[in-house]
Amino acid sequence: MNQHFSDAQVTHRLQWLVCPIRDLNCQRLVKFSSEGRSTVLTSVVNHGITYHTDAELQGSSGILLAFSERHGGLGSAPYDALNLAAHVGDDDAVVNENRRRFMTAVGAADYHDRLVTAEQIHGAAIVRVTGEDAGRGARAGEIPPPIPGTDVIWTTESTIPLMLFFADCVPVVVVCTSPRAIAVVHAGWRGAYAGIVGATVRAMRTELGDVELLAYVGAHIGACCYEVGPSLVSQFANMFVTIPRASDRLDLGAVVAEDLDRAGISRERQWHLEICTAHNTNRFFSYRAESHTGRHCAFAMLETRL
Ligand SMILES: [Zn+2]
Question: Domains plus CATH for the chain?
Answer without folding.
Answer: 27-302 (3.60.140.10)
